[in-house]
C-alpha cells in the first residue's frame, strides 16, 4: 500500500527525468518555471495561438493493465501529440496526472523512461503533474503553438478528401495486443508499432497546413471522424474506395473485412483533411504519403463507392475492449 510519502517519491521520479526551471526543454521552450512549484510558469510564443487538449487512458479500456509500462507511456503521450498534429500545432508542454494502484519502482522506472524518450523525440516538455492512488489511469494534457489551425469547420463542397499513410493497422493489431491468437513475428512487430508507437503526423500537418481547408486526426475510425468534418462544415461526402490505403496488418483478412477495418477501425492516428481543387497541383508536387479518397458535397451524409457501385460497411466506428 502506498502512503503519501511514497507518492512524494513518485514526483521525484519524474523531476529527475524532466528538468525543472528555466533549463527545462531548452532555450526556446518558454518554460520559466517547470515541475516543483504550485504552478508551472510559461511564456507563450509571441503572436501565436495556444492549442490545448487532454486525453485519459484507462487500464483495460484503452490498454491491457498488464502491458509493458514503457509502451503504455509511449502510447499515452503519442495519442495526445496526435491531437496537436490534428490541429497543425507545434508541441510545447504537457502535464501528467497518474493514478496508480501502488507505488511500484519496477513499474514506474520503465514508465518514466518511456515518457522521457517519447517527449525527447517530439520536442515536448513535462511541466507538471499529479499522482493519486487508485485503479491505473493516465491523463496527459498537451499544449502546442499554432499559426494556421487545421479546424473541422473549414471544408467546402467540392474539396478533395485525403488520408495520410495507411489505415486499419491499429484495429487489426487489437486481437494481437490482447493475445487472442498467435501472430507471426512480423505481425507481432507491426501490431506493437501500430498500438504502442503510433506516429503523430506533426510533420505532415506542417506540410499540408497551408493548403488544407479542414482536418483532424483519425482516432475513432475514418467514417466516424470524417462525419465530424461533415457536421462542422455543414456538408456531406462521397468516398471512392478503389485505391483505399489499407495497412498491411489488415490485409490478411478478406477484402471486405480489410476495407471495413480500414474505414471504421479506431486508433490509427493518421490525418484526414480536405483540400480545395485549386491547391491539388501544389499538393501533388510535395510528394507526401497521402491518398485522395473522395470529395466533399452539399448533401449531408457519407456515401461509399467501390468499383462504381455503392458499398456499405456493416460495423459502426469504435470498439472499446
Ligand atoms: Mg483528435
From TrEMBL:
It comes from the Bacteria. Coiled coil: none annotated. It comes from Microbulbifer hydrolyticus. This is Thiamine-monophosphate kinase. One of its GO terms (biological process) is thiamine biosynthetic process. Mg(2+) 5 binds at residue 220. HAMAP family: TMP_kinase (MF_02128). The keyword Kinase applies.
Amino acid at each position: 500500500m502506498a502512503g503519501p510519502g511514497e507518492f512524494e517519491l513518485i514526483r521525484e521520479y519524474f523531476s529527475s527525468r524532466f528538468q525543472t526551471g528555466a533549463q527545462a526543454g531548452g532555450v526556446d521552450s518558454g518554460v520559466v518555471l517547470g515541475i516543483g512549484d504550485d504552478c508551472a510558469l510559461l511564456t507563450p510564443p509571441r503572436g501565436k495561438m495556444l492549442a490545448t487538449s487532454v486525453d485519459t487512458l484507462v487500464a483495460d479500456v484503452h490498454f491491457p493493465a498488464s502491458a509493458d509500462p514503457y509502451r503504455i507511456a509511449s502510447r499515452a503521450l503519442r495519442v495526445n501529440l496526435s491531437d496537436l498534429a490534428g490541429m497543425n500545432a507545434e508541441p510545447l508542454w504537457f502535464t501528467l496526472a497518474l493514478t496508480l494502484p501502488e507505488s511500484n519502482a519496477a513499474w514506474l522506472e520503465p514508465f518514466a523512461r518511456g515518457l522521457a524518450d517519447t517527449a525527447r523525440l517530439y520536442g515536448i516538455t513535462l511541466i507538471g503533474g499529479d499522482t493519486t492512488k487508485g485503479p491505473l489511469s493516465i491523463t496527459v494534457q498537451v499544449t502546442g503553438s499554432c499559426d494556421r489551425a487545421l479546424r473541422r469547420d473549414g471544408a467546402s463542397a467540392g474539396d478533395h478528401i485525403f488520408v495520410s499513410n495507411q489505415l486499419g493497422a491499429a484495429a487489426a493489431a487489437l486481437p494481437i495486443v490482447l493475445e487472442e491468437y498467435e501472430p507471426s513475428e512480423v505481425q507481432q512487430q507491426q501490431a506493437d508499432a501500430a498500438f504502442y508507437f503510433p506516429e503523430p503526423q506533426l510533420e505532415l500537418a506542417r506540410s499540408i497546413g497551408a493548403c488544407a481547408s479542414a482536418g483532424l486526426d483519425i482516432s475513432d475510425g475514418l467514417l466516424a471522424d470524417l462525419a465530424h468534418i461533415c457536421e462542422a462544415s455543414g456538408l456531406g461526402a462521397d468516398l471512392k474506395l478503389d485505391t483505399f490505403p489499407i495497412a498491411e496488418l489488415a490485409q490478411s483478412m478478406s477484402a471486405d473485412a480489410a476495407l471495413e477495418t480500414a474505414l471504421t477501425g479506431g486508433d490509427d492516428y493518421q490525418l484526414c483533411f480536405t483540400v480545395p481543387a485549386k491547391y491539388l497541383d501544389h499538393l501533388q508536387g510535395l510528394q507526401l504519403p497521402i491518398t485522395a479518397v473522395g470529395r466533399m458535397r452539399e448533401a449531408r451524409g457519407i456515401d461509399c463507392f467501390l468499383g462504381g457501385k455503392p458499398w456499405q460497411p456493416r460495423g459502426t466506428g469504435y470498439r472499446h475492449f
